[in-house]
């Protein structure tokens, strides 16, 4: 039994089957302890080594470690020159940080619908409907770890003179036409929040092939300074200049030590997640009361989420409540951003988003993590059926 499995079985967990759980071993503990014993805990040599490894993993020139995935998006928009009056096309079926960071950069989101219930991703056709003269760029989101059709997206963007940000928070290790997610666009953004395939609790990466963008990202990440504390500690510089009004968005060596081990295990972790998705599909296929997205979808997934689209009229909240009574945690990925109170109040340019709104009412996320057992998957499926039987 792995240490993460022991943690799941401890009395501190309320859920018989939690929605997500980190996978780790004694290797992560050993590497974190080495950082603690080194006496240097903030951004330093461990984070720099991780940046080199992550860049090599994706085949990009630059990988910049940051505090979290939201910081990654925020810095990406600023480095690409987003400003007041600009618009960015982004899916509404996403985490709210995708839109919040556009606002923080001084611009406005323009929400796009997804392509279908079978593949709830933004596509060229869905984005083309909402591009306006104010549009500066596109933010695509690899929902659930399933890649968008990035070759078509990039062709469309280049013809329109738009840049592309990939929100790859769900997709470390995913591929579209053998190119890693995050490496297609002008900038790729990753999150290492506690429920992600790679996790250190909080953390993120911004990646790019473009030298001038990387230079801006590194400066903005650390208060706009032209040197880091680690450089001065090593005696490379004695003072610094500030060339921009930046932020404290650095990652520290403690979290980087965790991620370094997990990055080297990512292929194994993603294969374990794929196996559990296949278990779910085997147990749940063929029932008309729900559909399973992404069956037969192209590309290589990171298998971050397993979601169902419940049939029209099934009371989702009641089903989730009954599954909770069986100790099964479920969730919704995601409530559409444009339906939140704050975004309704902004009176943004209106776009019809019928599929996103339908999914917002009917999506149900089931537990998925690498250490999930067959018995747990079966319990989830049995409790789902019982809940729907009782609620309909």
Account of the 3D structure:
Strand 4, helix 7 and strand 5 (163-167) form a beta-alpha-beta unit. It contains 15 helices and twelve strands. The chain has a seven-stranded mixed beta sheet with strand order 1-9-8-5-4-2-3, sandwiched between helices. Strands 10-11-12 form a three-stranded antiparallel beta sheet. A two-stranded antiparallel sheet has the order 6-7. The longest helix is centred in the C-terminal third of the chain and has 19 residues, at 266-284. Helix content is 40%, strand content 13%. It is an alpha/beta fold and 392 residues long. The chain is globular, with a radius of gyration of 21 Å.
Number of strands: 12
| Share in helix | 40-55%
β-sheet strand percentage: 5-15%
Main structural class: alpha/beta
Please state how the strands of the largest beta sheet are arranged side by side.
1-9-8-5-4-2-3
What summary fits the major beta sheet?
7 strands, mixed
Order of helices and strands: HHHEHEHEHEHEEEEEHHHHEEHHHEH
Number of helices: 15
What form results from the Cα inertia axes?
globular
């Amino acid at each position: 039994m792995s240490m993460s499995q022991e943690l799941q079985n401890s009395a501190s967990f309320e859920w018989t089957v939690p929605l997500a759980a980190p996978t780790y071993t004694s290797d992560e503990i050993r590497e974190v302890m080495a950082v603690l014993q080194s006496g240097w805990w903030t951004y330093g040599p461990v984070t720099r080594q991780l940046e080199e490894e992550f860049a090599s993993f994706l085949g990009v020139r630059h990988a910049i470690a940051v505090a979290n995935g939201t910081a990654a998006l925020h810095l990406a928009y600023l480095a690409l020159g987003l400003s007041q009056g600009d618009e960015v096309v982004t899916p509404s079926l996403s985490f709210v940080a995708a839109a919040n960071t556009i606002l923080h950069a001084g611009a406005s989101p323009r929400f796009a619908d997804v392509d279908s219930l079978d593949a709830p991703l933004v596509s060229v056709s869905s984005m083309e409907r909402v591009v306006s003269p104010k549009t500066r760029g596109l933010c695509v989101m690899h929902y659930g770890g399933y890649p968008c059709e990035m070759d078509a997206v990039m062709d469309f963007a280049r013809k329109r003179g738009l840049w592309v940000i990939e929100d790859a928070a769900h997709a470390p290790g995913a591929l579209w036409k053998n190119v890693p997610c995050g490496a297609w666009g002008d900038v790729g953004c990753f999150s290492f929040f506690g429920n992600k395939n790679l996790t250190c609790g909080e953390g993120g990466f911004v990646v790019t092939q473009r030298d001038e963008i990387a230079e801006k990202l590194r400066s903005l990440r650390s208060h706009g300074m032209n040197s880091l504390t680690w450089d001065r500690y090593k005696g490379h510089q004695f003072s610094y200049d500030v060339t921009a009004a930046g932020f404290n968005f650095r990652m520290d060596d403690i979290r980087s030590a965790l991620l370094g081990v997990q990055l080297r295990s990512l292929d194994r972790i993603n294969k374990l997640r794929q196996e559990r998705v296949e278990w779910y599909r085997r147990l749940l296929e063929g029932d008309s009361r729900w559909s399973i997205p992404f069956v037969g979808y192209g590309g290589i997934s990171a298998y971050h989420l397993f979601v169902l689209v419940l049939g029209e009229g099934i009371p989702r909240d009641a089903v989730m409540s009954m599954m909770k009574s069986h100790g099964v945690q479920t969730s919704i990925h995601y409530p559409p951003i444009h339906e939140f109170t704050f975004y309704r109040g902004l009176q943004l340019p209106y776009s019809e988003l019928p599929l996103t709104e339908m999914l917002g009412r009917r999506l149900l996320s089931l537990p998925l993590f690498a250490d999930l057992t067959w018995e747990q998957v079966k319990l989830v499926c049995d409790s789902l059926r019982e809940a729907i039987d009782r609620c309909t």
